[in-house]
Each structure stands twice: as structure tokens, then as C-alpha cells.
Specification:
The chain is of the alpha+beta class. It folds into three domains: about 140 residues, 2-Layer Sandwich (Methyltransferase, Cobalt-precorrin-4 Transmethylase, Domain 2); about 160 residues, Heat Shock Protein 90; about 100 residues, Arc Repressor Mutant, subunit A (Orthogonal Bundle), CATH 1.10.10. Helices cover about 40% and strands about 20% of the residues. The strands form six sheets. It has a seven-stranded mixed sheet with strand order 12-11-15-16-19-18-17, covered by helices on one side. A four-stranded mixed sheet has the order 1-2-4-3. It is globular and about 90 Å long.
Length: about 500
């Protein structure tokens, strides 16, 4: 969650989804009662280091690491939170003081803290002990969160061990000190919330979420015969399709297949974030793909699809709506449709925290497709529309980038590389331009453009043709051949 969102929370009063707690030198004594209550009700946000009047008291800088470690470890401790629900706080510095944000998703299970069940209202947390009140919690979650449906005859043998191993590797890459890494497979699945016991019926076993994340293909289709995610390209053949991937495997593998599909058919763009080059395509579409896999009502037979058109990407998936109509990035409350699956994808590093998707897509789309905004529409069928601009022009930039990046990286710094890419793209699209025309197109001083063009000439990527007064710059035949080969590989 960005600091802007945290500052926005500081301007609100405490409510059913927002709690302020002082935590100068350690965790507040009632923290896990609040976490438990939010997990059981609607989820929410906790800001540590803030008093009840929205004033930032701050956290002792020397205690921050210890407080973070205690919170993570205790959220994974069934004696403190049962079943465990691992949380990852984020530290911010605002007005010279440190505070900690803890995002608590709604859970598909009923949790206890210290052996007691807590619920939440606008007045705060309260302990419930009446059997009928506890039963109401179980019934509401059972009806709303079908990912928690227990399959008592689903066994560890029905799950794909290689996928569990892959998940371990992803977790380790994301956090080498993750507390789940020392657990065996059965313990990991239990701790992650994929094995549960219904305290009303006594039924116990692995859940639908376990099957969807790790199940062998035949097991998943035995449970959900309608399950699929259909990826399509409709640029030339808009009535049928140009390419298709019909995905009916576990969610961990499905994510990789869909990201590969996006990579084959959508261009990337050169983009710097600070001093690092990042992939805009990955930043945007990891969120889109995670959304149709994670926040989806799997018991509904409506097919999930992701379709690439010439000017946009559209996705649809079955949904249990938490509202209706377009979602505004400035005014929305993140609400997971499958909390256990969403939590696991965060541990894998495939999404950030809950609610990051809409914010990230809006942020990076401004650079990927300037002047366009995405649309996210909440209904029984959730729909997203991601404008992607001129695919042909973008592909030219992409192939130029792929062709010359390695050559340039050996000799020049990353900032120079960015300028050279831009010059190459302009010359590729409009051959024969003179240096002053290129300078005007890019808004860069002509002297600097001439210096950069000289570098491109040294690399044999650009050549001047014609007489000095009327000639212009062209991509060399060798570079054009490389670009052509890149295009042919991308089409195969």
C-alpha cells in the first residue's frame, strides 16, 4: 500500500475496518484481538504508532525490527491466532515519525485469539461465546467463501508434489526467512489454511483452495468439471481467434502459462523506475492475471477469459460482488473473494498486498499506454478493460529494444541506453531524418543527439546516407535483419 493511501487513512475516524493503536516500544496487548475480529468480519487496516485521535505518536526506531518480527511470528503461532494467518506489516515515515501499517484481509475461516472468538463492529472488538453467534459466523463464511469447502476424501496423494516444491522455491525467493519454509508439506498446507476442520459438523480435510492451487489436473476437473481459463488473441480474426491457450491446470501453473501468453502477444516498453529498468508489461498484467485467478467464484460455471484485441485487453470472470459498477482507484476498499488463495499468492511474490492491483495498473498504464485509463467493473461477472494503444507501433519499439539492448549494455550506462533506444525507434519508424529533426521529435538538444548518434554509428546500428546537406539517418542493413528475425521469432 502506498504512503498516499496510509495518509488518507490517517484522515479518517476509526470504524469497523480501521483501527489506530499506540505501539511505542512493543505490540499492543489487544492487537491480536483486533486482528482476529477483522479476520472474522470484513478485514481492515491497523495503524500502529497512532493514538485514538489520529495523532502520530510514532514507534521507537530501535524497536521497529523487533516489533515487525514479533507480529509476523505471532500471526503464524496457533497459540496466539488459531488458525494462523501470517501477516506482513509495512513501515512508513510520516512527519518525521515511524508508524506501521498492518493490512488484515477478511478470512474464509473463523479465527480465535487466546482460545476465544472475536467479532468486530463500529464500536471495536468484542468477544463472542454464545454458540448461535459463533454458528452465524461459520454459516456466513461457508456461504460466501466457497474456497473453504472441505473435501474429506481429498488426500495429499491427489496433489501435485512438484507444484508444492515450486511454491516453496517461489516463497524462498520472495522471502528467504519465511516461517513456512521449515514446515513439511502437510504442515505448510495446514498453516496456509488449506486444511480445516468444521467445528459444527466435525468434518475435516483439504479444501477447494488446496485442490485449485496444487491439485493434479484430473482431480481439479473431477471437483469442478467446468473449470477453465480461456486466453485468446483477436486482432486479425475477430470472429474466432488468432491464437488460443485453453488453461485447465492448477493456479500456480496457470499463472505462468497466462503470463507466457501475454509475453508472446503484447509488447514491452523501455521504462526506468529510479535507476532500474522494469517491465511495464509484467507490472500491469501480473495484476490482471492474478485477479482472474485469485478473485474468482470457482463454483460458478461462467468461463473466465482474457482476450487481447488490437487496442485493448479484456478479462471477465465469475464473481461474488462486494458492490456494483466501476471501481475508482481513489475510493475502493479491497475485498478478497478467496482470502486463502489471495494470501498464498502474496507469499509467492506474484502479487503485492491486497488492493495493490488496481493501484499498480493505474500507475504503470500511464507509461505503457499514455492518455488511457483502465476500467474495472464490479458485478456478478467482473470485467476489466486495459487499453494498450497502437500495437504495431509498440511492437516496433519492442523489437528495436530486443535487438540492440545487449550490444549497448556492454558499453554504455543505463541512462544513455534509454536515449539510444528512443533515437533508434524514431529512425526505425521514420527513416532518413536529420539530427535536428530527431532532436525536435524527442525534445532533446541537437548537440546531445549528434553525440548519441555517433555512438550508434560506432555500434554499426545507424548509418548516414546521402550528401551532408540533404541526407539523413537510417538503420543499418545488419540491424534491420536482426529486427526482422526478432519479429519472425515472436510470430512463431
Amino acid at each position: 500500500m502506498s504512503i498516499v493511501i496510509v495518509e488518507r487513512l490517517l484522515n479518517k475516524a476509526e470504524n469497523i475496518r480501521l483501527e489506530f493503536k499506540e505501539a511505542t516500544t512493543g505490540l499492543p496487548g489487544t492487537l491480536f484481538e483486533t486482528i482476529c475480529a477483522m479476520l472474522n468480519r470484513e478485514g481492515g487496516d491497523i495503524l500502529l504508532g497512532v493514538d485514538d485521535d489520529n495523532r502520530i505518536i510514532g514507534i521507537d526506531p530501535g524497536k521497529i525490527n523487533a516489533i515487525k518480527a514479533d507480529l509476523v511470528n505471532l500471526s503464524n503461532n496457533p497459540q496466539k491466532l488459531d488458525p494462523p494467518f501470517i501477516l506482513f506489516p509495512v513501515v512508513y515515515k510520516i512527519k518525521g515519525k515511524y508508524l506501521m501499517h498492518v493490512q488484515v484481509p477478511v478470512s474464509s475461516q473463523v479465527h480465535k485469539s487466546g482460545g476465544h472468538v472475536y467479532d468486530r463492529s463500529n464500536d471495536g472488538d468484542f468477544r463472542i461465546s454464545q454458540p448461535n453467534r459463533i454458528a452465524e459466523l461459520y454459516n456466513r463464511k461457508k456461504a460466501h467463501y466457497t474456497e473453504g469447502t472441505i473435501y474429506p476424501y481429498l488426500s495429499l496423494d491427489d496433489l501435485d508434489i512438484t507444484v508444492i516444491q515450486k511454491a516453496r522455491s517461489l516463497i524462498r525467493n520472495n522471502n528467504a526467512n519465511h516461517p513456512w519454509l521449515h514446515l513439511d508439506d502437510k504442515q505448510l498446507l495446514q498453516t496456509a489454511g488449506f486444511w480445516r476442520r468444521d467445528l459444527q459438523t466435525g468434518q475435516e480435510g483439504y479444501t477447494l483452495a488446496a485442490a485449485l492451487l496444487f491439485g493434479k489436473d484430473e482431480i481439479i476437473l473431477n471437483i469442478l468439471p467446468h473449470y477453465k481459463t480461456d486466453a485468446l488473441v483477436r486482432i486479425n480474426d475477430t470472429d474466432r481467434y488468432d491464437d488460443r491457450d485453453y488453461v485447465q491446470c492448477n493456479l500456480v501453473t496457470a499463472y505462468d502459462r497466462l503470463m507466457d501468453f501475454i509475453g508472446r502477444h503484447l509488447p514491452d516498453k523501455f521504462y526506468m523506475e529510479g535507476d532500474q529498468r522494469i517491465s511495464l508489461r509484467t507490472k500491469i498484467f501480473r495484476e490482471i492475471i492474478a485477479n482472474i485467478l485469485v478473485h474468482r467464484e470457482f463454483t460458478n460455471a461462467y468461463p473466465a477469459t482474457i482476450t487481447i484485441f488490437a487496442d485493448r485487453v479484456e478479462t471477465v470472470n465469475a464473481n461474488v460482488p462486494n458492490g456494483a459498477g466501476p471501481i475508482s482507484p481513489d475510493r475502493f476498499a479491497p475485498f478478497p473473494k478467496n482470502p486463502s488463495i489471495a494470501k498464498f499468492f502474496i507469499q509467492l511474490g506474484r502479487v503485492e498486498e491486497l488492493g495493490s492491483g488496481i493501484l499498480n495498473v493505474n500507475k504503470y498504464l500511464a507509461a505503457y499506454s499514455p492518455g488511457n485509463k483502465p476500467a474495472f467493473i464490479e458485478a456478478d461477472v467482473f470485467k476489466s478493460i486495459i487499453p494498450i494503444g497502437d500495437t504495431v507501433t509498440d511492437t516496433v519499439t519492442d523489437t528495436v529494444t530486443d535487438t540492440v539492448h545487449q550490444l549497448m549494455e556492454r558499453k554504455f550506462g543505463i541512462n544513455v541506453i534509454g536515449r539510444l533506444f528512443n533515437i533508434m525507434s524514431v529512425i526505425y519508424k521514420t527513416p532518413g531524418l536529420r539530427s535536428n529533426m530527431i532532436a525536435a521529435t524527442l525534445g532533446i538538444d541537437n548537440k546531445n543527439i549528434r553525440r548519441d548518434i555517433q555512438k550508434l554509428q560506432e555500434l554499426k546500428l545507424v548509418i548516414f546516407k546521402g550528401i551532408p546537406k540533404t541526407g539523413g539517418y537510417f538503420i543499418t542493413d545488419e540491424a534491420l535483419q536482426n529486427i526482422k528475425e526478432d519479429n519472425n521469432r515472436g510470430q512463431r
